[in-house]
């Protein structure tokens, strides 16, 4: 069905009643009382899923729905050659082709469990406006069209059976402008567009990161708020992720309303939840900051998240994805966790619902490493410093395209219980590891560590290293340890 504006208003009246009656109200002052869930801070590793209509053309990236309407773009030309003119075959015409015939939520959930994921987050609605779940607000959803299945709900059920927290993301706000280029020539995107139309509103794009662009209308933002609250009500996600354009000033009052509603509903359920945001869309301390395709160079006193993907060119499936290695992703995971972060790693399933072999291979290799070394990751805390070594980490978003060249001197630290974990990102062939931060020095000089080391072992190996502590560092020597993945030294402290 399609909600009328009156239906949305009635629903939002109920939303605002929850806000009035709950512990949080829609102000930054109230929302600043929010506490990041303990389970989330312990999880350290989650799976992100970009799956939708854009996986049918599998060309370019997940922005196909926008780019196919930009005249002269590779997607524009590909679309004409493959599917015909835009006025006869537009983006909406992919909906009947999206059947998800091989989608098996049980298989997905088991793969994510085997990968060692401690939370899973499918994209509920991408910028293209097609909902991957059952919705009463718009008919353009996977339950009423295409596969006619509640794809997201099936995954939520399968994850719950494995006690893996279910999360969700909404990229709906970018739909305000995402399809606007289709109005610039003879395509299937034509005025008048009204609420309930798939392409509505398809406003002019002033630049995808232009926060001075004309504000989304009240009608659109109320529809946005209703869609987000519907996901909360029907699926109870443990984390709710937003993409970048919620940074627009016009979104601020609606963001505060959503956060108050979500946190109040979670209080009703007795659940701990979180919101992910980018840039400064939320007041600091009211939600969890996300760094897209990048990370911090230094350890932070606050909990944060990196979202990244197994492929460098696209979040969704394409026929020519450029894949990272499992080694590089494990190194990123270790680095992020040592700096008080968590990593949300994306995969892009094919249109039929199968997860590509390369995505699967990467996930299983990460899972194999975590089964051996997970105690250095899950539930760990930061040490006095994140690490040591010569390789610098470029700070900021979209810095993950180049694989970092780590050395045997690049080491990251975490603490769990009475153990300090030193993860050597590139284990030396000669088996000699030198950890400068653990030098035996005069405590009066206030080094990073002046405590007592009782023993050193290596996770996953029977060989015990020969170790000694000198004024230049902790030296560990092995003769049999060889690995193409990071190696974790488990250091028992007294």
Order of helices and strands: HHHEHHHEHEHHEHEEEHEHEEEEEEEE
Helix content: 25-40%
Mean pLDDT: 96
Number of strands: 16
> Per CATH, what is the topology of the largest domain?
TIM Barrel
Q: What is the class of the largest domain in the CATH system?
A: Alpha Beta
Straight-line distance between termini: 64 Å
If you had to describe this structure to a student in words, what would you say it looks like?
This protein is of the alpha/beta class. The protein folds into 2 domains: 372 residues, TIM Barrel; 88 residues, Golgi alpha-mannosidase II (Immunoglobulin-like). It is built from 12 helices and 16 strands. Strands 1-2-3-4-5-6-7-8 form an 8-stranded parallel barrel. The termini are far apart.
What keywords describe this structure?
12 helices, five-stranded antiparallel beta sheet, single chain, TIM Barrel, 494 residues, 2 domains, globular
Provide a short characterization of the protein structure:
By secondary structure, this protein is an alpha/beta fold.
SSE arrangement:
Layout: H1 5-21, H2 28-31, H3 38-43, E1 45-49, H4 64-67, H5 74-83, H6 105-114, E2 120-125, H7 151-160, E3 168-170, H8 175-178, H9 218-235, E4 239-242, H10 252-269, E5 274-277, E6 288-292, E7 304-309, H11 326-338, E8 341-347, H12 357-373, E9 387-388, E10 411-416, E11 419-424, E12 432-435, E13 453-458, E14 466-470, E15 473-477, E16 487-493
Parallel strand pairs: 1-2, 1-8, 2-3, 3-4, 4-5, 5-6, 6-7, 7-8
Antiparallel strand pairs: 9-10, 10-11, 11-16, 12-15, 13-16, 14-15
């Amino acid at each position: 069905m399609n909600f009328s504006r009156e239906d949305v208003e009635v629903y939002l009246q109920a939303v605002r009643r929850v806000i009035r009656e709950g512990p949080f109200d829609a102000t930054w002052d109230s929302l600043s009382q929010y506490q990041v869930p303990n389970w989330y801070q312990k999880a350290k590793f989650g799976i992100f899923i970009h799956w939708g209509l854009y996986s049918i053309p599998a060309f370019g990236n997940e922005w196909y729905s926008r780019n196919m309407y930009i005249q002269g773009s590779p997607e524009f030309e590909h679309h004409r050659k493959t599917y015909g003119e835009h006025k006869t075959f537009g983006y909406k015409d992919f909906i009947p082709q999206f059947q998800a015939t091989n989608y098996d939520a049980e298989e997905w959930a088991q793969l994510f469990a085997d990968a060692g994921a401690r939370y899973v987050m499918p994209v509920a609605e991408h910028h293209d406006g097609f909902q991957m779940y059952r919705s009463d607000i718009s008919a353009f959803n996977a339950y009423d069209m295409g596969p006619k299945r509640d794809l997201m709900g099936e995954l939520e059920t399968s994850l719950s059976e494995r006690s893996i927290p279910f999360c969700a993301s909404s990229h709906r706000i970018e739909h305000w402008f995402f399809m606007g280029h289709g109005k610039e020539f003879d395509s299937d995107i034509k005025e008048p567009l009204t609420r309930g139309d798939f392409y509505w509103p398809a406003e002019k794009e002033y630049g995808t990161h232009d926060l001075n662009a004309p504000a989304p209308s009240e009608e659109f933002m109320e529809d946005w708020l209703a869609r987000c609250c519907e996901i909360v009500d029907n699926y109870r996600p443990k984390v709710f992720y937003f993409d970048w354009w919620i940074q627009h000033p016009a979104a601020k009052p609606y963001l505060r309303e959503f956060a108050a509603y979500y946190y109040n509903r979670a209080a009703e359920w007795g659940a701990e939840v979180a919101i992910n945001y980018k840039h400064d869309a939320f007041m600091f301390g009211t939600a969890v900051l996300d760094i897209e395709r990048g990370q911090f160079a230094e350890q932070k006193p606050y909990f944060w998240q990196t979202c990244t993907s197994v492929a460098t060119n696209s979040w969704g499936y394409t026929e020519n994805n450029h894949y990272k290695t499992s080694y590089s992703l494990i190194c990123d995971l270790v680095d992020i966790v040592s700096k008080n972060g968590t990593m949300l790693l994306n995969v892009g399933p094919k249109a039929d619902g199968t997860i590509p072999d390369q995505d699967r291979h990467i996930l299983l290799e990460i899972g194999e490493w975590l089964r051996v070394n997970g105690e250095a990751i899950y539930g760990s805390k930061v040490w006095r410093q994140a690490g040591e070594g010569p390789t610098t980490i470029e700070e900021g978003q979209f810095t993950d395209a180049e694989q970092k060249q780590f050395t045997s001197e690049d080491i990251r630290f975490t603490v769990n219980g009475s153990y300090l974990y030193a993860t050597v990102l590139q284990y030396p062939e000669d088996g000699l590891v030198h950890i400068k931060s653990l030098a035996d020095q005069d405590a009066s000089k206030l080094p990073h560590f002046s405590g007592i080391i009782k023993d050193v072992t290596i996770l996953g190996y029977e060989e015990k290293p020969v170790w000694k502590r000198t004024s230049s560092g902790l030296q560990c020597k092995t003769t049999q340890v060889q690995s193409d993945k990071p190696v974790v030294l488990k250091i028992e402290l007294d």
